[in-house]
Amino acid sequence: MEPLPFLKMHGLGNDFVVLDARERPIALTETAVRAIADRRLGVGFDQLIVMEPSADGADLFMRIRNADGGEVSACGNASRCVASLVMAEKGARTARIDTASGLLECAADERGVTVDMGPARLDWRDIPTAEACDTLNMPVSLDGLSDPVGVNMGNPHAVFFVPDAEAVALEQVGPALETHPFFPERANIEMVHALGPDRLRMRVWERGVGITQACGTGACAVAVAAVRRGVTGRAVEVVLDGGSLDILWREEDGHVLMTGPVATSFRGVLSPDLL
Predict the structure, then answer these.
(1) DSSP single-letter state for residue 241
(2) 75 a catalytic residue
(3) 1 has a pLDDT exceeding 80
(4) Which of 67, 138, 199, 200 has the fewest CB atoms within 10 Å, counting from its CB?
């Protein structure tokens, strides 16, 4: 395989290697993805993003691979990054991104890039869970953690409300909760506590990645869970390890809007040895 040019981007420290396959296809094995993800021997990323042609009239299709090599359907921070690239190419302030979880309408203003992540899905079959349950109070517990809220934002989330998100040993409980038998497709795990009526502190263990500085779909899930629990209103600032995202859960259509910054770290070329 020839050397591949790439772009390294991040949203609040949630970092991505972005490849452009709109002109020629790029096929990567799970082994190659894991090699590129290695932060000592490769480039390092939380997710690898491949920009491909869209069959649905969008600006492009965004394919998402986690650091473990597996493919997933949604990534909020990556959506903002890719949307910013499309807007720069078009000289426009809007973009339409096609993903495995649906079409995303994106727009830029002085606050950053806003992505309409679509409706929050709340039925137990949508999460999904191994058995029928009330997703407002799911029967999952571990090491004093219990009663998470289930939300699907194109990927599954289990949101735990705790007295202090900083005090949770996320590196210990994250792997076990991600792979809990109650979540047949595994789950992203969030720990959250309220900083005020419109502000939340969140830490995240991402499915197939581990602890990350930020997670866009996780911030959306946390905001939805907080509204459902009566903790906050529908417009909320979510404070992550890498910074803050503004989330709005619209009442009229159930769509979740996420707004935040994007950044480019560097450009490079992937060695064929990694591929």
Answers:
(1) T
(2) yes
(3) no
(4) 199
Assess whether 133 carries a catalytic annotation: no
The domain 4-118+261-274 is placed in CATH, from the list 3.90.550.10, 3.10.310.10, 3.90.1720.10, 3.90.180.10, at: 3.10.310.10
Q: How confident is the model at residue 272 (pLDDT cuts 50, 70, 90)?
A: confident
Domain ranges of the chain: 4-118+261-274, 121-253
H, E, C per residue of 147-181? CCEEEECCCEEEEEECCCHHHCCHHHHHHHHHCCC
Given the structure tokens 């137990």, which residue do they identify? 124
Q: How far is CA 274 from the centre of its chain?
A: 25
Give the model confidence (pLDDT) of 94-125 as tens digits: 999 999 999 999 999 999 999 999 999 999 99
Domain 121-253 has CATH 3.10.310.10: yes
| Given the residues 75, 81, 106, 220, the one annotated as active site | 75
Q: Do residues 238 and 247 lie in contact, with contact meaning Cβ atoms separated by under 8 Å? A: yes
